């Protein structure tokens, strides 16, 4: 099975800061990591390869620094790595990002495409489904378990209050949750191998045949961040002290009624 895993290099922080002037992420001084869901996607792909054979290719769209994330994926055991990089791609929103990644994935070739459910910096959870749309593939999101039966995958999809078991024919796209599997560590041999392997770089000229130039970069992005501002901290709240459980419940109900919440 030829599996392509899309990985995004993200800042290692839950407190993403935006430059108020440019509305882009401030990356300086923040170490980068592979997005958490994507690392679980890599683990699931490696387990599938161990079960049914084939190869795992990791692909990332980003600046040259994203090579570090791809090397880490190689050190975990992935077979090939491809960086989609070019000035023409800069400033892409999710729609343009998905268009570019889809062109790259098409060029690489695939039976199964795995993306993370959501990136911890951009946080939109749009890119995976948009890649599937670009490639005309069936997709299952929020996947936390994958089994293979011939040319069909049997996957467990997570909802807030339940699960679905879904059968989906290959080729298809899955968006991975961290519950899919704890990612393995890089091995010492894997680290040496990772530095022997070449990371293939595909730029605009390489992908041009599969891209609409009007759909990429800042100019081709239909959405625009027009303003960014921090959330106001919520008030401290009220602590009810010295009350029995019944009195506390009554006091809370009274407050909620006063605010017309109940
Ligand atoms: C107008 C505009 C301009 C922007 N300009 C820039 C910019 O100049 N620089 C910048 O860094 N960001 C920019 N962004 C943010 C950028 O669009 C998003 O970071 C990117 O499209 C991914 O969206 P997300 O982080 O919400 O990913 P999600 O949709 O939350 O990611 C889901 C999954 O998709 C896959 N994925 C997402 N992005 C990539 C990627 N790059 N490579 C491989 N796989 C990926 C991963 O598997 C990930 O887990 C801009 C956004 C807008 C709206």
Overview of this structure, please?
This protein is α/β, with parallel strands linked by helices and 262 residues long. Helix content is 30%, strand content 24%. Strands 9-8-7-10-6-1-4-5-11 form a nine-stranded mixed beta sheet, sandwiched between helices. Strand 4, helix 2 and strand 5 (80-84) form a beta-alpha-beta unit. Helix 2 (67-76) packs across helix 5 and helix 3 packs across helix 4 (127-135). The protein is globular, with a radius of gyration of 22 Å. The protein starts with a strand and ends with a helix. The mean pLDDT is 93.
Q: Can you give me a brief rundown of this structure?
A:
This protein has 262 residues and is α/β, with parallel strands linked by helices. Helix content is 30%, strand content 24%.
Roughly what percent helix?
25-40%
Which residues sit in consecutive blocks of at least 5 with pLDDT less than 50?
none
Ligand names: flavin-adenine dinucleotide
- With helices defined by DSSP (H or I, 4 residues minimum), what is the helix count? 7
Strand order of the largest sheet: 9-8-7-10-6-1-4-5-11
Q: Could you give the count of β-strands?
A: 11
**Termini gap:** 54 Å
Radius of gyration from the CA trace?
Answer: 22 Å
Shape: globular
What is the H/E string?
Answer: EEEHEHEHEHEEEEHEHH
Percentage beta strand: 15-25%
Largest sheet: 9 strands, mixed
What structural class is derived from the secondary structure elements? Answer: alpha/beta
Could you tell me the mean pLDDT? 93
């Amino acid at each position: 099975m030829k599996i392509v895993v899309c990985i995004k290099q993200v800042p290692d922080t839950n407190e993403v800061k935006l430059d108020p002037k440019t509305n882009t992420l401030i990356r300086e001084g923040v170490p980068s990591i592979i997005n958490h869901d994507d690392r679980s996607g890599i683990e699931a792909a490696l387990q599938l390869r161990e079960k049914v054979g084939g190869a795992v290719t990791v692909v990332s769209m980003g600046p040259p620094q994203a090579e570090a994330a791809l090397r880490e994926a190689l050190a975990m055991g992935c077979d090939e790595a491809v960086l989609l990089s070019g000035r023409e791609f800069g400033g892409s929103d999710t729609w343009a990002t998905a268009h570019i990644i889809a062109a790259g994935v098409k060029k690489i070739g695939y039976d199964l495409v795995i993306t993370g459910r959501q990136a911890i910096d951009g946080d939109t959870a749009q890119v995976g489904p948009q890649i599937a749309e670009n490639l005309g593939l069936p997709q299952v999101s929020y996947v936390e378990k994958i089994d293979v039966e011939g040319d069909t995958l049997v996957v467990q999809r997570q909802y807030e209050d339940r699960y679905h078991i879904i059968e989906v024919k290959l080729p298809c796209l899955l968006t991975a949750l961290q519950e899919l599997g704890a990612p393995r560590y890089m091995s010492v041999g894997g680290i040496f191998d990772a530095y022997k392997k070449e990371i293939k770089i595909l730029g605009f000229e390489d992908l041009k045949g599969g891209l609409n130039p009007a759909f990429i970069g800042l100019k081709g992005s239909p959405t625009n961040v027009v303003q960014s501002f921090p959330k106001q901290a919520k008030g401290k709240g009220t602590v009810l002290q010295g009350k029995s459980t019944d009195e506390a419940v009554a006091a809370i109900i009274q407050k909620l009624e006063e605010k017309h919440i109940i």
